[in-house]
Amino acid sequence: MKPVIALVGRPNVGKSTLFNRLTKSRDAIVADFAGLTRDRHYGQGHLGKREYIVIDTGGFEPTAESGIFKEMAKQTRQAVAEADVVIFVVDARAGLSAQDHDIADYLRRLGKPCLLVANKAEGMREGAQLAEFYELGLGEVLPVSAAHGQGVRSMLEAALDALDLPEPEEDAEPDPDAPIRLAVAGRPNVGKSTLINTWLGEERLVAFDMPGTTRDAISVPFERAGKKFELIDTAGLRRKGKVFEAIEKFSVVKTLQAIESANVVLLLLDATQGVTEQDAHIAGFILDAGRAVVLAVNKWDAVDAYQRELVQRSIESRLAFLKFAELHFISAIKRQGLGPLWGSIAKAHQAAMRKMPTPQLTRLLQEAVQFQAPKRTGMYRPKLRYAHQGGMNPPVIVVHGNSLEGVTDAYKRYLEGRFRKAFELTGTPLRVEMKTARNPYADKES
């Protein structure tokens, strides 16, 4: 599982700027105005091969008893509870405040790994200007400048080292007999619990407890039509006597970790609400993780023809980037449309694990270039020579040639379409990477 890092601090100390730096994105809104972030923001990043999840929080006031600041404090406490390591951000230029002391007292009581980071420290020397922050009793003060990127890498290395995690292993060859790991993801109250209970109870599937650690998603192995599956639940399965009961307890971190550890993700949508921004965010995480995906719209029996048309339009517009995924309309409570789901799940898994021989890939590449050559950029036209498979789940196709840095995104999409059609890659993302041959004369003097 990816480690989780929470950014905590009082308002306007630069947490969102640091979040954007750690995720290499602009997902968090940044402005010189206190209290801009109110909800938790989630993002993913990596340092070399070490990957992580970052949570950006609003300004933290542990003693707030009412109003928006109480709600922001509640959001921050939830983020800290989900985190493996906390980065406490203070303002090196504004100096120490009483609020910093309150936050430090709260973090010390938790006993979690915590790094004290003094932001906006560009141009400052380590010494007198940072000495006052040692009063907080959280150990060494790490000076950084989130806006300029100074000290951020060292801070991140210290945060990941504090967890003493094993080095990431090289991807092993997938076991063809291993069960399909299926994660059911979606917003709260879309019917995940009902669907899971229907699968485990009404269809009388073979199931038993497989407890994991607190950081692991709870998984339940079961079998259907001779095929083995392993359900990774994001709703939090609990056992009550001999009956499985799914408790709807939404945690973004649990959902992200379940998506990461799955082979296939079933993204459940609510027909009565259409595609929301939260649905689109979860779909984006699935795509970023490279997981095979099946879309299912639940509560289809509860909407009329007009609402159904609106839902289909919202899927086409807001989830256009998942057009490779198969779409089903179901009713979990009435057990309608559930059968075909399993066929799409198996098909998506097969596509994600598809082996593509190098001779066939190269032939398809040459046929694609003959039909439509890439545009010339500058003095040269990109030359695509051969292709081979670079990975599975998701499938990766590596194209070799010369001047490939000039290949446009549109042409990559064209190649992706040709490869998808030839290998029937339904339900899985496909990544096409370009690798330019090194010029042997580049380092020689003329």
Automatic annotation (TrEMBL):
Gene3D superfamilies per UniProt: 3.30.300.20, P-loop containing nucleotide triphosphate hydrolases
Q: Which SUPFAM superfamilies match?
A: P-loop containing nucleoside triphosphate hydrolases
Which keywords does this Swiss-Prot/TrEMBL entry list? GTP-binding, Nucleotide-binding, Repeat, Ribosome biogenesis
Residue ranges spanning the membrane: these are none
What GO MF terms are annotated?
Answer: GTP binding; ribosome binding
Q: Which InterPro entries does its entry note?
A: G_ENGA, GTP-bd, GTPase_Der, KH_dom-like, KH_dom-like_a/b, P-loop_NTPase, Small_GTP-bd
Domain EngA-type G, by residue range, is 3-167, 180-353
Decide whether keyword Repeat is in the record.
yes
Q: Which family does it belong to?
A: Belongs to the TRAFAC class TrmE-Era-EngA-EngB-Septin-like GTPase superfamily. EngA (Der) GTPase family.
The UniProt subunit note reads as follows: Associates with the 50S ribosomal subunit.
Q: Read off the PANTHER family from this record.
A: GTPASE DER (PTHR43834)
State the name under which the record lists this protein.
Answer: GTPase Der
